[in-house]
Amino acid sequence: MAITYLPTLKQLQYLVALKEHGHFGRAAEACFVTQSTLSAGLRELETLIGVTLVERTRRVVRFTPLGEQIALKARIVLREAEELGEIAQAAGRPLSGEMRMSVIPTIAPFLLPRILPRLRRDYPDLKLFLREEPSGPACEALHNGRTDCVLLALPYACGEVSVLKLFDDHLFLAAPEGELPPGIGAVQPGDIDETRLLLLEDGHCLKEHALAACNRAELRAEATMLGTSLHTMVQMVDNGLGVTMLPKIALDAGILDHTNVVARPLDAASPVRTLALVWRRASPRERDFQLLGEVLKAAA
């Protein structure tokens, strides 16, 4: 019977790191090894399976078509290997060990300061590693195994995931003081001047939530989409450059403090986004994610 030589997890880790970073030096740093060690490990892998996975030149690292396929499979194998340890961990103390969570930028600075002290106090054995990134890259990282769960806002298509809805986050119109009619309680979508509306740039789902809530085609055509963060948007509004949409969690966190910006609720058919925690289906840490969701709800 022929002997089958299987790649090691370390070799697969080197391959995936090189695919993610596109550079031998940065991949080696990510794996905490020297560049020569990583390069040697990849050559051993290529010799083992008898194919070239990476074309090496002085300027670029280019994966062969087969190398692309094997790197994708390697991510899945590494993720499954990690979950072997998570199965045993999940059977022990709740919310302990390492957990990687991605959080979208329109949530992270406003909600995390309220939940992290509680997590440190109640679950001191939890090592929570946070990544702040837009919904698209966050969901991609989830399915590739680079993150364990994602805190985002719905509606958003994140693929085949388990979803725990946390709470509704209402949208408000923020404008320079004096621009809105005095005594106004709520703003109708039809009252918004589309030429004055400032929104986050593409890639931020809050932009889509705001446009969907208003349900006005001309807003999508006329609105200026250039903000990189809600704090930047508030500064532009404070300087009289326009109006914008803000979620309630940002207002509760004091984003308008020390500004001359006022906010009024949006009176629309669906003036909310729904904050949710999502994770890969059939994850062995589902109980941990459910518990984390309860902490998030309580903090809100």
UniProtKB/TrEMBL annotation:
The keyword Transcription regulation belongs to this UniProt entry's keyword annotation: yes
Keyword Amino-acid biosynthesis recorded: no
Pfam families: HTH_1, LysR_substrate
One GO cellular component, as annotated: protein-DNA complex
InterPro entries tied to this protein: LysR_HTH_N, LysR_subst-bd, WH-like_DNA-bd_sf, WH_DNA-bd_sf
GO molecular function, one term: DNA binding
Alphabetical keyword list: DNA-binding, Transcription, Transcription regulation
Domain HTH lysR-type: 7-64
Membrane-spanning ranges: none
Assigned protein family: Belongs to the LysR transcriptional regulatory family.
The name this protein goes by in its record: LysR family transcriptional regulator
